[in-house]
Amino acid sequence: MNLSRYKKVLQHSVKRISVFAALLAASALATHAQVVFSPVIKVSHDIDSPGEPQIAVDSAGNINTVWSDQTTACGSASCLMSIFFSRSTDGGATFSAPLNLSNDQGTSTLPQIALDPSGNINVIWSDNSPGYTAVFFSRSIDGGHTFSTPTNISAPSGGLLSQMRPGIAVDSSGNISVGWWQNGGNIMFTHSSDGGANFSAPASLGTGAAASPSVVVDSAGSVNVLWEAAVSGHNPFDAFYTRSTDGGASFSTPVDVTTISDGAGYEQVAVAPDGSIDIIWMSDCQNTGWFTCPAYPSSAVFFAQSKDNGATFSAPANLSNTPTGTAIGNVRMVVTFSGSVDIVWSADNAGQISTFFRGSTDGGASFSAPTQIANGFASQMAADANGNIDVAVDTTNNVQVARSTDGGGSFSLTNVSAASVSGVPRELVIATDTSGDISVVWPNYDSNTFKWGIFFSRGIVVSLSALGLSPANVTGGSLSTGTVTMNGPAPTGGAVISLLSSDPSVTVPASVTIPEGTTSATFAVSTSPVAAATTSTVSAVFGGAAQTATITVEPAVLTSLALNPSSTTGGGSSTGTVTLSGPAPAGGVTVALSSSNPSLATVPSSVTVPAGFANAMFTVNTRMALCPNSATITASFSAVSQRANLAVMPIATLPSQACSIRGGRGRRTFGLQ
Fold it and tell me: Which CATH class is domain 3-31+464-554?
């Protein structure tokens, strides 16, 4: 092994890695991964009264949405309502024609959707077609092209669903769990282990003016159910929790999680990767109307956690500490794959609605300070596989998404519906896919048709997808062109891509900007002359992620030797020019010279091409000749030789006989004797 060469390579690699790491860190600090939202499109037909949308995205990125709407326009509150379904298989660019799932003579509302690991689509809704309000179920196993005949899974007593709380959940084995509440105040549950072909007889989980159950299935397949029920002396509901570890065959004794007299609303349950059960809710402030509080007291956001599978819960912790007279209008929670607990809520103080965030990176043991992240109402939130947090915000006139890529340390706000749809958005729902892209759907008034519709937009997390160099092998001193490409259109203001070269022989600008709405940009790559072949890694960084490409810089080689003139009279001279393929490096290039007939034509032993130049000249001197003669001049550098012939002519032309004689061994030609 050549130890000195190995050490040199190692030193170069360490330097390259350290500089690249510094650039990567600086880029990550300077910019977050950015999201660009597609133009808003209408998913629904033009009937006029759609609402209650829900959305689910499968592992292949197919987007499935359901909503309720009138079957035909009739302009009356008593019009029949149906459940509609639509699906996009091209990332939200287009959606299938709305499919009527309920398709009966009743009024169907409050649809909910859940996908199994195979992408099969399960939908439930409330429907009064049996003569009482019941929970119906339908399923598609062909990507939403067809659905099974709707089945009343709440018979014989019926039940209601809640728009703000998930009533259906599917575990990793495809088992389906459904919960609802009856008019009499019972919380009911049923379960299917055969893909919805059959459901268990509805079982009661809790009674006593109970309502609004949430059903969540954890990674172990355990079924977690949370609901609110009246408790004497409380204001007016507490949140109750129960759990099944046998697929819903039996449940634990319900536990009152809230325990305080302030009451509970908008309660939500989530199970962390370590099995911790996290519950949040908002207290009631004896509202005189929705989202209002008298001067005293205020409503607040509370959190409780169980570390023993729901047997006991920690004392409620007040996370909002809201000022006097502040009303909490909604509270949402997500628990990420890493176990972080992220919570947002909307608060109205003196008519100003704001959205606040608190996060815990230690599994709920402690939380960050409350931070206002938006002006407006937070409808829903989601977190992707990388822990990025997305919050759908209703700002009265627009749909916005507040996004954090640093665990809630900071949020950026993107306008989704600007100038695309006018009116007042409501009932925003949001979902993320495996790539971290964001799907948002909402009902909105369309000023073009003077009707309400279900609208959609998809936010693509734009990232740097490629870096190319052409050519990737150049002679030092030559230029190359770099091209950076993103996976989607650059965001507003363009995307600034940081650039770096690992070797000083290759120079790139500090950055290049991909213009807004475009996907690529080019930049110049300049190189310096080198004495030996040198490979440099060019790095392009955006949003903390990098693409790299290599370029090899070759030393200049001898490409030609020219003599001017190429024929001269003996005693005269000619000028030789050696030319390299590129500029000579520092110290210049020494080209060796020789003559095949030094008695006729002489050259210096070498000529030096100065640093930064590609050619150099030298003089060829000749002696007088009586007869025509010639010499071959040779220039050599780095195992490459170039040759040129120089003809040397006599001053006077002699008869040909005088320039040759016959001998026993043949003809002999003379120059100057």
Answer: mainly beta
